[in-house]
């Protein structure tokens, strides 16, 4: 197999691997941001990183994944570290484990203290063997009792075997304030973080392009997954930000399908949702490809609606814009499109009042992207949840289900016909340097549609079940890009081909040249 190797961009030193970059991970900048949000003058932030963990009943290590809050204040991506930040002294210290030579024999070395100092913008690098002593002397500080800010009670510092109970009680632990403060800091990205997310997008985009080049010659979903992994790993991105979703035919109607082992034969489309990580920063990209090289008329019609939803929503992205406003643009386009296809039927106003379009567009418009693919949202949710009724609610992480009832409520609120709930009033507005996905979709999931709406006296009359029957083979269509909010609008960080360019790549016609 050959791979798309991404040439490193000379103009962007941040794009090269963090370990070889002259640019340090901006841990100190992040620490100062956190303190601004925490709004305190004294105390200690204490964040232990992830340790090596074994598989249950096995001597084999689990795949290492660094704790994201720890990483944000250090940049260190290896086991057994801790980071402390002495707030009053503005001093950030990375504590790394001392590796005995026999451990190096088995597992290889870790970055030395000098190497860490070179890679990460921290004031000092020390060995964890000295951490207990440091904490004990901190606890004995005359300006007592010092507050230690931790994420969770389970991450409280261990003062070591020789600590007396009086020393332990001198540390006042606060596990209420740090996480919200870090979430507010993390939701707006630094330039370095944007460069990392951009690089992850470049590599994932190359993987999507390579799948498009091959799709007409592939025979099983698993080959798609293999290409994604191969291109990403060959470009230095060993981890995916989430499991690859390669759903063909009806599998494309399942939002987080993951088996990736069905034959492609006799299927119309494949939904490929895949994004790698670069230096712990995520990307998240979805394309829907015609397996034969061209969409069937029905698939083309649905794809055109979703592309229209995405184009219009991306155009809406700018500072100050409430996310719900952008989401509702997608809803309106989906409703008009499905009415035009005859899948939805009835007077537009009544269809809108029932929120029926959410049966086909059953999730929010997107989420933040950063150290996690569904990244922290600050203190306010990106999409304030609407109250659900009739038991049809489940929250699957940041991809909560949006039911017709919920959408009907959202539309009543947005038309001023119903007051919003206290929770809803706390909605988020976009800010420069946030990175969000814009990922509208339309799905024809027979189990979901027939299970909940076929016999629903409110929703069923607005769906033409005979027309719908002809669309089940389309499966689903989702299109997703990572969008950076800029000072006056947006920048699309995802360069995977889409639209006409995607069809040209699939059919080997090279890059699409716009006649205008
Ligand atoms: N790309 C997976 C998700 O956003 O849920
Ligand atoms: Mn996503």
From TrEMBL:
Which reaction does this enzyme catalyse, per its entry? Answer: Release of any N-terminal amino acid, including proline, that is linked to proline, even from a dipeptide or tripeptide
EC top class, in one word?
hydrolase
* Cofactor(s) this protein cannot do without: Mn(2+)
Q: Which UniProt keywords apply?
A: Aminopeptidase, Hydrolase, Manganese, Metal-binding, Metalloprotease, Protease
InterPro entries attached to this UniProt entry: Aminopep_P_N, Creatin/AminoP/Spt16_N, Creatinase/aminopeptidase-like, Pept_M24, Peptidase_M24B_aminopep-P_CS, X-Pro_dipept-like
Which stretches are annotated as coiled coil? none
Where the record annotates domain Aminopeptidase P N-terminal, the positions are: 25-157
Is Signal included in the keywords of this UniProt record? no
In the Enzyme Commission scheme, what number(s) does this protein have?
3.4.11.9
Q: Which Gene3D superfamilies match?
A: Creatinase/methionine aminopeptidase superfamily, Creatinase/prolidase N-terminal domain
Q: Which Pfam families match?
A: AMP_N, Peptidase_M24
Family listed: Belongs to the peptidase M24B family.
Described by its record, this protein's role is as follows: Catalyzes the removal of a penultimate prolyl residue from the N-termini of peptides.
Q: What PANTHER family does the annotation carry?
A: XAA-PRO AMINOPEPTIDASE 3, XAA-PRO AMINOPEPTIDASE AN0832-RELATED
Protein name, as recorded: Xaa-Pro aminopeptidase
The gene is: g3508
